[in-house]
From TrEMBL:
Lineage, broadest ranks: Bacteria, Bacillati, Actinomycetota, Actinomycetes, Micrococcales
Pfam families attached to this UniProt entry: Aminotran_3
Gene name of this polypeptide: bioA
Modification N6-(pyridoxal phosphate)lysine occurs at: 290
Residues reported to bind pyridoxal 5'-phosphate: 118-119, 261, 327-328
Residues bound to substrate: 58, 151, 290, 326, 418
Localization annotation: Cytoplasm
The organism of origin for this protein: Glutamicibacter nicotianae (Arthrobacter nicotianae)
EC number: 2.6.1.62
Cofactor(s) in the UniProt record: pyridoxal 5'-phosphate
The protein, known as: Adenosylmethionine-8-amino-7-oxononanoate aminotransferase
Length: 453
């Protein structure tokens, strides 16, 4: 039964589902304002509190809220047109966005498909890989290899390549089975100097098992899908860049399409513009989303190499040459215009070198601040490990996190977070100041200590 009331939380209750929650779970706070790295929350009693958004609205609002350049881009496009179909038509925002993406991406990625969301961009990547193999005359290649511990989206095809046991979609495993799952890569840490630490023996064991699995199933595989260096929603698992080089080698050896899911890691979050750059490899297909529009509108993109794209173009009949996907809001001009402005903020002024681009200094500030202010958590009895990579900080507990209690304790300390599993993690906006990072760290560590000890 739908609840009635006058406050936003009362009106929400029983009316709206929230992510990964029952209908009666409702929301705990209403957002009344947002600016910079701050949210203004209102609780059930009507009390308002300003907090630092430690989530970047699920890793997307990298430039913060109400950014003047993004607001201006949205207003400017609204004054022209907010949407037009992309079938048979094109427009400047889409073309400019594709040009910017190709200029930023690894050199071989030259062609762009604009999608509605991250999950859909991965769906399109899977379709493209299947059509590529068909165009090459490799019948029977209808499966994908994916890393255990991975997460790639909530739609059915993407659920099928998420971890089938330890992921969020175990309830749907019987309907999305059939893919090949490679061992979860060994854990790694990146030190403050940028070096990588991991067990060479564990990596060698992973490589041996992965080589054997791929070789045994290669004739049925279309491609390999992976989140580079950081498995996000699958558990904030950091692994060695050498894993990516092994996957590239195996894809080349067995004629597989290598698909990098950079939706969470792209645009600087791990300390490099794209996480594949930690290994110096180029994938055949790369998916980006989340931070693409700076968190303003839903938009994602799939980029691919000319080698992949040309196989379809040369397949003869028009249906075989077409990439068989076409969302109603594909290439939405409003989203594309804001995305262009967001990428401009990352790149800096025209002619700015990659080394001097603003996001590099922002990420250096984030990483340094997170290392400093999350470090005290390692001394808590409830904590197994503290992990930091670029603009990602995670506190791994020895037991499942008490989500509601830790969330409330953090809000009382001026911080908004959304823990899951045994993880209390943060991915703050790039614009967060050193002072805000200090508040964020103290708030998160204090909340863990208060609730878990």
């Amino acid at each position: 039964m739908i609840a009635t009331g006058t406050t936003l939380l009362e009106r929400d209750a029983g009316l709206l589902w929230h992510p990964y929650a029952s209908l009666d779970a409702g929301a705990h706070y209403a957002v009344r304002e947002a600016h910079g790295a701050q949210l203004v929350l209102e609780d059930a009693a009507g009390t308002r509190r300003e907090v630092i958004d430690g989530m970047s609205s699920w890793w997307s609002t990298v430039h913060g809220y109400r950014h003047p350049a993004l607001d201006a881009a949205a207003r400017g496009q609204l004054e022209r047109f907010s949407h037009v179909m992309f079938g048979g038509l094109t427009h400047q925002p889409a073309i400019e966005l594709a040009e910017r993406l190709v200029a930023l991406a690894p050199e071989s990625l030259r062609h762009v498909f604009l999608a509605d969301s991250g999950s859909i961009s991965v769906e399109v990547a899977l379709k493209l890989a299947l059509q590529y193999q068909e165009a090459k005359g490799r019948t029977g290649r209808h499966r994908f290899a994916a890393l255990r511990g991975g997460y790639h989206g909530d739609t059915f095809a993407t659920m099928g390549i998420c971890d089938p046991v330890d992921g969020m979609h175990a309830a749907f495993a019987p309907r999305s089975s059939g893919e090949l799952f490679l061992p979860k890569p060994p854990a790694a840490r990146r030190d403050a100097a940028g070096g990588w630490e991991y067990s060479a023996a564990e990596l060698a064991q992973w490589e041996q098992e992965t080589h054997e699995l791929i070789a045994a199933h290669a004739t049925t595989l279309a491609g390999i899908v992976f989140e580079p260096v950081l498995q996000g929603a699958g558990g904030m698992h950091i692994y060695p860049p050498a894993v990516l080089r092994t996957l590239r080698e195996l894809a080349d050896r067995h004629g597989l399409v290598l698909i990098a899911d950079e939706i969470a890691t792209g645009f600087g979050r791990t300390g490099l513009l794209f996480a594949v750059q930690h290994a110096g490899i180029e994938p055949d297909i790369m998916c980006v989303g989340k931070a693409l529009t700076g968190g303003y509108l839903t938009l994602a993109a799939m980029l691919c190499s000319s080698r992949i794209a040309s196989a379809l173009s040369g397949s003869g009949d028009s249906e075989g040459a077409a990439l068989l996907h076409g969302p109603t809001f594909m290439g939405n001009p409003l989203a594309c215009a804001v995305a262009c402005a967001s990428l401009d903020l990352l790149a800096g002024e025209p002619g700015t070198s990659a080394e001097r681009a603003p996001w590099r200094q922002q990420l250096a500030t984030l990483e340094s601040g997170l290392r400093t202010h999350l470090a005290p958590a390692a001394d808590l009895a409830s904590v197994q490990e503290v992990r930091v990579l670029g603009g990602v900080g995670a506190i791994a507990l020895a037991s499942p996190v008490k989500v509601a209690e830790v969330t409330e304790a953090a809000v009382q300390r001026g911080v908004w977070i959304r823990p899951f599993r045994n993880l209390v993690y943060v991915m703050p906006p790039y614009i967060s100041t050193p002072e805000q990072l200090a508040v964020l760290g103290r708030g998160v560590v204090g909340a863990v200590e208060q609730v878990h000890g």
